[in-house]
Amino acid sequence: MNNLAESQTQRRPSQTLKPTGRVKLFVRKQIDSKRHLSVMTILFLFFAWWLVTSMGWANPLFLPSPAAVADSFLEVSLEGYQGSTLLEHIGTSLYRILFAFFMACLVGIPLGIMMGISHSFHQVFNPVIEFYRPLPPLGLYTLLVMWLGIGETSKLALLFLSGLPGIIIATIQAVSDINPNYVRAARSVGAKRWDLIREVYLPGAGPTILTGMRISLGFIYTVLVAAEIVAATAGIGWMIWDAAKFLLSDVVIMGLIVLGITGMLLDLTLKIFGRILMPWTAVKKM
To answer: What is 66-281's CATH topology?
Structure first.
């Protein structure tokens, strides 16, 4: 009888799970299914790319085959492009991106908090931000080059200004959405302004601020090529721009793929960073 009971238990493991265990199993299955869908999508796109190029439906000058792009990746990684290897190009671009992003967060988050909790701060800084936010990056870049020269400073300034509005606007919205009852409750126990920022505004506004940081990083990525086309000798954006002038489409596509992968990795890093600092945001959607 004991052996029979044990065999029935082994045949029906899901019935022996606790409710929390069943939920975790369901969530794990959902995550695995989503990963399978993502992998299938990527494989389908590569298959379509290979099919179009192998059948000769596209001019190889404008759409090279996946094998040609892979060969370009190996060549640039080992021999380099215009005097710099692929790793050096990636390092140069990442330095510009991360420095500008860090400065945008360092300035934008405190400024957004103050604009969200102080009407006077909002009235002073909001017109400036709303004025330059829709300006085209290339148009703004010409002025920055006139002021700061064609060196590294103007590139970093352009990337910084591109990422700043997204963080500020998200932070203002996040602070404004804080339940005023929490603020009144904190003040009733003697909390000062800094205590409110540290204990009420930042924990409550954290998830939305993180979303603004991710959007800001995306804006910086979109402006990277524009920032690197003037007086640059290295960088992924510059490599793409320079290769396009000589119709090296395999280098262009390879650079775009590398740029997209690095962007995804940085965005994933931000997500992990946010879940570590704000574990309550890591709840999975079933």
So the answer is: MetI-like fold (1.10.3720)
